[in-house]
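can u pls check wat happens w/ S-adenosylmethionine
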Amino acid sequence: MRFHILTLFPEMVMQGLNTSIIGNAVEQNLIEINVINIRDFTKDRHKKVDDYPYGGGAGMVMQAQPIYDAWKSIVAQVGYEPRCVYLTPQGQVFAQGMAKEYAREEDLIFLCGHYEGVDERVLEEIVTDYVSIGDYVLTGGELPAMVMVDAISRMVPGVLTNEESGSTESLEGGLLEYPQYSRPANWNGKEVPQVLLSGDHKKIESWRHEQSVQRTLRNRPELLEEAELSRADVKQILK
Ligand code: SAM
């Protein structure tokens, strides 16, 4: 899968995505991250990419021309118009299901805004999806793009070395994950729950599932409306 990130701050994105699991996935050619500096496409002789908003108001607006030309360079490179995500607090809030869906694309373009945002006319021309990473306002779309690349890449086959770790995680099946423990069995006077030391895999699985239901009920009860629940789960919830 290829990610194409349109930004004014390429170094920020490159530094943020070249380590750990995502860095390894790039090295193994499981994903490709193509960072494009919008400024390289400006026709302004001072390399300007933003200007004052028509109608007045605070801040600067990113101009249409350099963004459009940068986008066209990607389209020319891949030979078609891939989905283009504009990161914006005005978009649909990103969630795990969307990460899974995006992971099926061959190419995905991200447009990172900055300052007061982007000239609406170029958004109308190139953007197919408006996505927010949460109800708060950030200074730019770079962190949101990195968040999305990370979450989507984890859904690309082969990126997670232990396939299982992707399928038991929080939000899979609509529930939060059970608590995790590692060595030693006693730390700071706190014991690991006995069942995890029992070697009885059926019991462990059922304990973990109960813990998931309880955690979801306690921390994110609204998720239970969409979760896949058994009769036993419902009984547990109603207790
Ligand atoms: N004036 C814009 C508005 O009210 O919608 C906000 C501009 S914000 C300061 C600058 C850029 O940061 C945006 O163009 C967008 O790309 C990015 N951004 C800020 N908050 C975001 C969020 N919650 N999710 C995704 N992108 C965000």
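The chain has nine helices and nine strands.
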